[in-house]
């Protein structure tokens, strides 16, 4: 086989290189083929999966460690340039570091914590709010941007200088150059496969005359100085599809955008059919974007020349496209700035987006389960939930993406198959993820735990279902109570292991959501509400307002619509669900009264059923008795009629024959007459056999065999039997028939029984 391959030219005896020295391979498939005629090439062009296998993790060199904890995201901004509203004190460097004050040293720890909560609850909304929300809401594009533009042609990419920035001095110099520009284009290259939250690897900035590529892996902690130009409302930042870029800038660098123009929104408003940057390049620049490095690993350092050229192409032509789409919007709006204002308004809404950190909860797996469109039983769903939780935990600990730890399709396949052995788990994965092979024993234990679940429908065991944690911190901004507000939950949702503590009162049954989930927000605040409960002592001292009285009636109607029929008792305005299980509360007494009333009603209904059953059985017995008597009467009447008919028939027979009935029949009483009363029994006298004649029983002492009839012998001897006359009348044929029959019968000897 080797010689045949060499003869065919397949084997050139090339040395086998290690994986790190082999050239990158291309993935050839139908979805990424692209004809090369536009580039003057004869062969088809495909995407290149340029991936570095032995790249050191850039996260290890970050000065600020990556935070993968299950807590909400806090803005990284600590200096706010171009501010119309000052930065909250909690976001500044001094506010981030909690220092003990001198007046807090001499007070108890519990009181100190209360004072700290009172201080922080005022700045809680400011921490989770958008730092530049006030500036963006009061921003309006200048008049020069709402006029008909004059497109400025781009310079050829070969004649445009390109600067690769890797030091802080060059970054400061770039910031000074951008301050003198009226507009510049911006784009990012992000990596998310080998990181849980992902990180930005490259930033491209293009002006009318120069291109800049910033190594954000080296300057990650110094990128905040660009906020001076990024938040300047006089400088236009041009991006294409900025939805993800805005969040990445906030997450990695603490950068925010003010006065941004999104060419993707402009293309949508122009109804161009396709809104991609490739389509805009073909339409306005007559160029075809080179997307063969779209799937490349941007962590590679140093960057190859081809990848640098690809990165420059995303922003080099974007300013010219910005001019062309503004001109098209001006013409579409009948030379009015209406369409331009719409694009700026949509772009401003994108700038107001806030990065939301992925948080794990007990019901996080349901979102992925609904997207799969499969039906799992109890055991499979339990395995799916356990595997989802394991994947999230490992991904946060190892700082890897969930797709790298265990892809979704492999997770679903393992949950469906429920392998009994570790080899079965590995068989469900192709290729096997490294962390799955490393922790195969833990996964096997999880599958065994899921297999022990019974095939039953899951039911909520607790009386009150636990509410999921807040998905977004925006819910904390409004302290007012609403019909669907989850800021007040019962104490049952809080896991309290101390059983010796006294039962809290009804007024202490509701707590704020921040107290229940300190790991999510780290803060606690007291939220006021018109539905807040009042103690009995306070109710006597202070009258309720009109709103609180209405709220009290509403809550009472929600708890029990039949409260008006209960004995008059004082009930709290807000009825906690946990009060039903607290013997010290009024709700417990009321619920017990309802239970007792229900039990008495059930007992009375049972007695009524028994009484009705007894009446029905008595009526049934009476009916059966009447039916039996009627049946007996009918049978007696029928028997009497039959006897009369029989006697009449005998009388007719006697009259026709002319004879009299026998003596014993004359003595038989008539059927019509009533039976006579039985006579008294007479005395028994035995029969006297001494006077009897025993000769009738005597016979000869010699036994003689009785003669047997033999038709053939009698016919041969000439003797005529008693019935000879009959045989003579029937003829010789009858005699011969009887003879044959007798002869045939003598041949067979039947066995005796």
UniProtKB/TrEMBL annotation:
Start-end of Polar residues biased regions? 682-695, 726-735
Q: Point to the regions of Basic and acidic residues compositional bias.
A: 474-491
InterPro entries with a match to the protein in the record: 3'-5'_exonuclease_dom, HRDC-like_sf, HRDC_dom, HRDC_dom_sf, RNaseH-like_sf, RNaseH_sf, Rrp6-like, Rrp6p-like_exo
Q: What is its main location?
A: cytoplasm
Question: Required co-factor?
Answer: Mg(2+)
GO CC terms, sorted = cytoplasm; nuclear exosome (RNase complex); nucleolus; nucleoplasm
Query: Single Gene Ontology BP term?
Result: poly(A)-dependent snoRNA 3'-end processing
* Keywords of this entry: Cytoplasm, DNA damage, DNA repair, Exonuclease, Exosome, Hydrolase, Isopeptide bond, Magnesium, Metal-binding, Nuclease, Nucleus, Phosphoprotein, RNA-binding, rRNA processing, Ubl conjugation
Task: Note the superkingdom of the native organism.
Answer: Eukaryota
What the record says about family reads: Belongs to the exosome component 10/RRP6 family.
The record's note on quaternary structure and interaction partners says: Component of the RNA exosome complex. The catalytically inactive RNA exosome core complex (Exo-9) associates with the catalytic subunit EXOSC10/RRP6 (via its N-terminus). Exo-9 may associate with DIS3 to form the nucleolar exosome complex, or DIS3L to form the cytoplasmic exosome complex. The RNA exosome complex interacts with cofactors C1D/RRP47, MPHOSPH6/MPP6 and MTREX/MTR4. Interacts with MTREX; the interaction with MTREX mediates the association of MTREX with nuclear RNA exosomes.
- What name does this protein carry? Exosome complex component 10
Starting at the broadest rank, the lineage of the source organism is: Eukaryota, Metazoa, Chordata, Craniata, Vertebrata
